[in-house]
Specification:
The protein is α+β, with helices and mostly antiparallel strands and 430 residues long. The chain contains 12 helices and 18 strands. It has an 8-stranded mixed beta sheet, with helices on both faces. Strand 2 and strand 3 form a beta hairpin. Helix 4 crosses helix 6 and helix 8 crosses helix 9. The relative contact order is 0.11. The chain binds adenosine-5'-triphosphate (ATP) and magnesium ion.
Length: 430
């Protein structure tokens, strides 16, 4: 898969001193000293300094090096030379240079603001910063798949076009489906609840859609959602699973992407030990002590979550939120019906919620009652209610936001940078 190149940049080490190699990539930096041309070449694995010098290469190569603009694509043949001053301790003494795709006046020069960079996302993807973040993202997703696989979860897929409200009407995207009103899925949960009757433990990692009008650092309109559902599991089982999964993902990212974390200047230690589990009541009290005006019954808002989350060193669970603050499918606590058997996982350092989950109602009548209480149309939930009619089981599940998890691990301020092409209320291009 090298299409005429013999090495990726990461393979060019000081041990190759004196060897002839062919590399290919894009011009990352350049310095024109007339009779000496320095080019820094970037490929998917790293950067390499290359030098074309009068006397060491032919005139044609020197001219090609001079001509090659920032971000033009090149194939280069040269001799590896150790040089402690160069990145990676080696440079390439150029013999031949082929400009494959010229690039003149690359629009991103390094001082642009965030909106400009978002407008040019298709080009900004090449930045080392985004490369590092997106490699961390890919590693995190891979680690999630691994963890689920090792723990006996079957991967499933849910439809994107659906008829049911999952998380509340305020954030629904409506779609005209041959004259019928349908929605873009807010969560795959309801479908995972069907799959558990076949596979017991299931998961999916796919996009969810929310028409989030509030533009915050942690909301996208399309985000990747890692969701799992387990038969025969209660709230505590759910928290155990989330804890093990999140720890595994953090460990693997640190193990496999330390260079990228370093590039981002992120000092991140995978969390150790049990994640604290505090009740909503305790969390609310903490927030109130710090000045929050929330009163019992209201969901924790972003500022309150932030205040609480600054108090913790590792992720922590907040469980048993008030009944009115969550969606219809949550199971009320039999010991205290005004709260639900649900829990969110909040990341430390002010980041806040990265996972939401809990035990689901498995009783037919109770579920029907809650659907009506929420003003939803039961006829749209017939199949979902069926699951409670034919061999229902206690079950629990959760949804983890991929971008929020990556933003926490990589230490990014806005989750827009944790996905290649972010979707927000004002952005659907590129
Ligand atoms: P929030 O209250 O922060 O808006 P939520 O409670 O609506 O989130 P859930 O329905 O619990 O979110 O979704 C599960 C997880 O999916 C969240 O913990 C979060 O990580 C992620 N998530 C939810 N909405 C978004 C969004 N708009 N953009 C990115 N991630 C999201
Ligand atoms: Mg939530």
């Amino acid at each position: 898969m090298k299409f005429g190149k013999t090495h990726y940049i990461s393979e060019i080490t000081p041990e190759l001193q004196g060897r002839e190699v062919v590399v290919a990539g894009w011009v990352y930096r350049k310095r024109d000293l007339g009779s000496v041309q320095f080019l820094v070449l970037r490929d998917s694995t790293g950067i390499l300094q290359m030098v074309a010098k009068e006397g060491e290469c032919n005139e044609e190569t020197l001219q090609a090096a001079k001509r090659a603009g920032i971000e033009s694509s090149l194939r280069a043949k040269g001799i590896v030379r150790q040089d402690p001053r160069a990145p990676g301790g080696v440079e390439l003494v150029l013999k031949e240079l082929e400009v494959v795709g010229p690039s003149e006046d690359f629009p991103i020069k390094g001082k642009e603001g965030p909106e400009f960079l978002l407008d040019h996302r298709h080009l900004y993807l090449r930045s080392r910063r985004l490369q590092a973040i997106l490699k961390i993202r890919a590693e995190a997703i891979k680690a999630m798949h691994e963890w689920f696989y090792k723990n006996g979860f079957i991967e499933t897929e849910a439809p994107t076009i659906i008829e049911q409200v999952v998380e509340g009407g305020a954030t629904l995207f409506e779609l005209n489906y041959f004259g019928k009103k349908v929605y873009l899925t807010q969560s795959s949960q309801l479908y995972l609840e069907a799959f558990i009757t076949a596979f017991e433990k299931v998961y999916t990692i796919q996009p969810s859609f929310r028409a989030e009008k509030s533009r915050t650092w942690r909301h996208l309109t399309e985000f990747w959602h890692a969701e799992a559902e387990m038969a025969w599991a209660d709230l505590n089982d759910m928290m155990d699973v989330v804890e093990a999964l999140v720890k595994y993902v953090a460990e693997k990212v640190v193990e496999r992407r330390s260079e990228e974390l370093e590039y981002l200047k992120r000092r991140f230690e995978p969390p150790d030990g049990r994640f604290p589990r505090i009740s909503y009541d305790e969390a609310l009290e903490m927030a109130q002590r710090k000045g929050s005006k929330l009163s019992w019954g209201e969901d924790l808002d972003t500022p309150s979550e932030r205040m609480i989350s600054l108090e913790f060193e590792t992720p922590f669970f907040v469980h048993r939120y008030p009944r009115q603050s969550r969606a219809f499918y949550h199971m009320p606590d039999p010991k205290r019906p005004e709260v639900l058997l649900c829990a969110d996982l909040l990341a430390p350092e002010g980041k806040g919620e990265i996972v939401g989950g809990g035990q689901r109602i498995h009783d037919y009548n109770l579920l029907l009652e809650r659907i009506k209480e929420f003003g939803l149309d039961p006829s749209r939930y017939t199949w979902y209610l069926d699951l409670r009619k034919y061999g229902t089981v206690p079950h629990s599940g959760f949804g983890l936001g991929v971008e929020r998890t990556v933003a926490w691990i990589a230490g990014i301020r806005h989750i827009k940078d944790a996905i290649g092409f972010p979707r927000t209320p004002t952005r659907t291009i590129p």
